[in-house]
Amino acid sequence: MNAAAATILIVDDEVNNRDQLEYILKPEGYRTIGAASGRQALASISDEIPDLILLDVTMPGMDGFEVATVLKNDPVTSSIPIIMVTGQVGRGARMVGLDTGVEEYLTKPVDPAELSLRVRNLLRLKTHTEPVANGGSAPEHPAPLQTPADELQHRARYDVVTGLPTGASFLETLQQILQLASETGSAVAVMSIDLDDFSDVNEKLGIPAGDDLLRQFGTLLQCAGGRDAVGRMYEDKFVLALATNDDEASPIAIANAIRDAMRRPFEFNGNEVLTTASIGIAVYPVDATDPVELIGHSDAARRRAKQAGGDTFLFYAG
User: Fold this and answer.
1) Which strands form 312-315's sheet, in the order they lie side by side?
2) 10-residue mean pLDDT series, the chain (318 residues)
3) What angle do CA 126, 295, 105 make, to 5 degrees?
């Protein structure tokens, strides 16, 4: 991508930090836009989609983790490269940041040469490739031209590993559920779920075993009583939606049912694996009315559940 054609959105609540990053990038020929908060950044992106985002973490209102989650869960913005630029230097903060799907994580004070190289490399590598199951590698060559159109549509809407709806397909269904809820006055709970220590299964037993675990877990979620929609976002991240007349009782019952079902080991090729899940819950219309923001809030709650040790569920606390 030509540097002169690239627009970079700098999101930081401190004007001096935004000015410093702009000072580094201007000589490279980039066009920069500034945003002083997460919500201002989302508003800016709705008007003009940038080629890359430099995102602070600690901001009032929506923090950088929430902003990144919203953007990466929206098919319109999921391919925008994001570099988190933050003063949080701990490994835990870095892992949480990368868990949202951001491409890079830099700590302040930023090294100008390193920032320039990472920006340049991400812009060069920016492509609109299809998501790959279970953290695998993208195909080296594009799909053959003779692939039937209906098969391509199916692959875009349904995950190749679990058979569940993809994140984009789930989002469409969630929009319909929320529209109906707005007409009936119902609440809708969105649950973000991931498997604790899933990477250990991939590392110890191999990718095929990890895929088998994902399939079995997807089946478990499909059998969860009362759910209106379920999908796989990426890797071991799943999402579930259910309409309810009660803001908390129904999602609590579902969350506990999922945790109870996971007390039994998953089996594949003679191996038994016990694992747990971290679950985050956000409720419409209390926590958000926008479907993408609702998913982002449930992700934020899930990360808090994960940080609390996993095998638990937490409601979003804005």
Assistant:
1) 229-234, 237-244, 187-195, 277-284, 312-315
2) 74 93 90 93 90 91 84 85 79 65 84 88 64 43 42 66 86 89 91 92 88 91 79 90 79 91 86 92 94 92 94 93
3) 40
Q: Choose among 272, 293, 271, 273: nearest CA to 282.
A: 293
Residue 288's pLDDT is what? 94
Domain ranges of the chain: 3-125, 151-315
- Rg for the chain (alpha carbons), in Å? 20
CA distance 135 to 143: 19
d(CA 16, CA 286): 35
Q: Among 161, 171, 154, 263, which residue's Cα sits nearest to residue 213?
A: 161
109: cis peptide before it, omega within 30°? yes
State which fold the 151-315 domain adopts.
Answer: Alpha-Beta Plaits (3.30.70)
- 236 included as an active-site residue: yes
Q: 68-107: string of b/e by CB count within 10 Å (b at 16+)?
A: bbbbbbbbebbebbbbbbbebeeeebbebbebbbbbbbbe
Task: Tell me the C-alpha distance between 238 and 157, whole Å.
Answer: 15
Q: Which of 236, 246, 290, 299 is catalytic?
A: 236
pLDDT number for residue 134: 55
Strand order in the sheet with 52-55: 31-35, 7-11, 52-55, 82-86, 104-107
Superfamily for domain range 3-125: Response regulator (3.40.50.2300)
Sequence length of the chain is 318
| Spatial separation of the C-alpha atoms in residues 296 and 192, rounded to whole Å | 9
What is the Cα–Cα distance from 249 to 300, expressed in whole angstroms? Answer: 20
